[in-house]
Amino acid sequence: MNQTVFAPWDDPKEKPLIRFKGVTKRFGDFTAIDDLTLDIYEREFFALLGPSGCGKTTMMRMLAGFENPTEGVIELSGQNIVPVPPNKRAVNMMFQSYALFPHLTVYDNIAFGLRRGDMPKHDIADRVDEMLKLTRLEKFAARKPHQISGGQRQRVALARSLAKAPKLLLLDEPLGALDAKLRQATQFELVDIQEKTGTTFVIVTHDQEEAMTVASRVAVMDEGRIMQVATPEKIYEAPNSSYVADFIGDVNILTGTVKPAGEGLYQVHWSEGREPNIAASDKNFSEGQTCHLAVRPEKIAISADRPADADNALQGKVLDIAYLGNLSTYHVELQSGKVIKAQTANTRRVSRRSFTWEDPVWVSWTATAGVLLDR
Amino acid sequence: MTKMSWFNVTSITLGFAFLYLPMVILVIYSFNASQLVTVWAGFSTKWYAELLQNEAFLDAAWVTLQVAVMSSTIATLLGTMAAYVLVRSGRFWGRTLFSGMIYAPLVMPEVITGLSLLLLFIGIGLDRGVLTIVLAHTTFSMCYVSVVVSSRLMTFDQSLEEAALDLGCSSFDAFRLVTLPIIAPAVISGWLLAFTLSLDDLVIASFTAGPSATTLPIKIFSAVRLGVSPEINALSTIMIAIVAVGVISASLVSKRNSLRIQRDEQAAARAA
Ligand SMILES: Nc1ncnc2c1ncn2[C@@H]1O[C@H](COP(=O)(O)OP(=O)(O)OP(=O)(O)O)[C@@H](O)[C@H]1O
Ligand SMILES: [Mg+2]
Prior knowledge:
The structure holds 2 protein chains of 2 kinds. By secondary structure, chain A is α+β, with helices and mostly antiparallel strands. Helix content of chain A is 23%, strand content 33%. Chain A has helices spanning 56-64, 106-116, 121-134, 150-163, 180-197, 208-214, 232-237, 242-247; strands at residues 18-27, 30-40, 45-49, 71-76, 79-80, 91-94, 168-172, 200-205, 217-222, 225-230, 252-260, 265-269, 277-280, 290-295, 301-303, 312-323, 327-334, 339-345, 360-365, 371-373. A 6-stranded mixed beta sheet of chain A has the order 6-7-8-3-9-10, sandwiched between helices. In chain A, strands 13-12-11-14-20 form a 5-stranded antiparallel beta sheet. A 5-stranded antiparallel beta sheet of chain A has the order 15-19-16-17-18, with no helix packed on it. Chain B is an all-alpha fold. Chain B has a single domain (62-266), classed as MetI-like (MetI-like fold). Chain B starts with 5 loop residues before the first helix and ends with a helix. Magnesium ion binds at residues 56-57, 96, 172 of chain A.
């Protein structure tokens, strides 16, 4: 792997490749993108994550030049690209709907962009062959788009957008139609291509696991706003809001009021007459402030007796067990009725599992297991 | 095949008789040896031979063909452009008015279209001839083309054009290399429609034709006023044959196309 950590966003001297400055996009009186400010750096693999309709495609379309921002400026390598038409931008896009040309063969689809430039004929042929090989489409070069399967079409779209070796490649849900195995292989291929070509990728995905696997940074969006931009680890381990915590992976969220307990520790009173939780945080909370404690299921232990050294322990009974192969998730109902999810690795056979439905159990976690959030 | 009830048989016979009996009679009498149209005097093809000697008819046929080809080509160009603008440019000021005005000639009585064109040509001092008929036919057939093409463009996936732009095409190249080839069948049927409309137009042509150029429908119409001759029957039979061959081959081509696509898709399903 890399010797030096790739983190241009932490380097104040680094110039971003793309810069959104206060970009707002309205369709009529509907605001699709709301005052977006964002830097994306060269060689990044930047993932946009968010629920359907949050504005991911709109953001891509502004980068490609199909939509103009209502307000604000978009810069590419320091130059304002808002007035530049799509065919003059060193940006290629892979469309969510693929947008393959139905009247052209797979080969001609891939060659289409190359033929628009002044590339010599045999170079075009070489490049197309290279792309066909990369996407494993050699056998289908002579077919038309309606003669191949959905996954193959997706790969044609990918090959076509890659062929021109753009500075910036926009991928709108590039792997949605692939089966799990091909999807994983293509993800690695994408990362590989990215490392080989040094192209900057912006990828839209619904699949958070995909974002975690491929991305250098992830942006979580909601209703036209960016909620958090950070590396996958950071997004997962240190989400800045319960929205982000909830969106990425499974999480238990306990809402309560906070009381400082000194040395970066806080007590969270989350239910009347119950002993408070202890949570560590390097953020400052004032007494009585409402807060959310987000704890990942895999950080919660489950046991028959109350563990002696746990910072937080609660009693409940097993409501449900979800078997996920290598893992099991226990849904434990507390006396208050709240359900806590706890995850354990399945090291034993299912038949010899230590807990079953209706068993009384304790769930416990340490003070540093959770993240204390103010929204 | 299920057995047809007597009711179905009767209705289909009546329907087809109503549609085709006049034409069948016309075709039969074109092979009549007699000079009198209503008296059968044996089989003969002499009227066809005579037709080929008739300079006036041949001239008119030539004019008609020229007019049909030119006017349908211009109408296809203009109609496609108008349809493209109307469908693509979204909302602009006066769009409803503009599209209404394009489609108005569809419902305008032909007499009025013809008369207003006549007044225009007189007004600007244009001598009536092939040119004026071409202009007149272009005017009224262009809106038919634009209806056909715009209904195709409505279902055209706009992201295809965007993809072309994204890959470095200018707007014109995107239209030429992506949009046009895909909507070509609609453009061609628009052209065919304009062509046949021009071929059999009588009203507008009579307003805009001059002594130097007469179209076949005008010629036939004026000849018939002096009495129906077997020669006219022969001419009409030829026109029917041309139209029939055109229609049948067009439908065969489109049928073969859809069969091919079906076969290709099945092949793809097997390969996947
Ligand atoms: N041309 C348009 N006119 C009006 N509203 C639009 C237009 N394009 C997008 N929108 C709206 O903007 C919002 C964002 O759309 P966008 O396509 O960016 O969503 P998305 O995040 O890509 O969703 P998905 O994950 O489903 O693809 C949606 O609510 C959509 O309805
Ligand atoms: Mg989208």
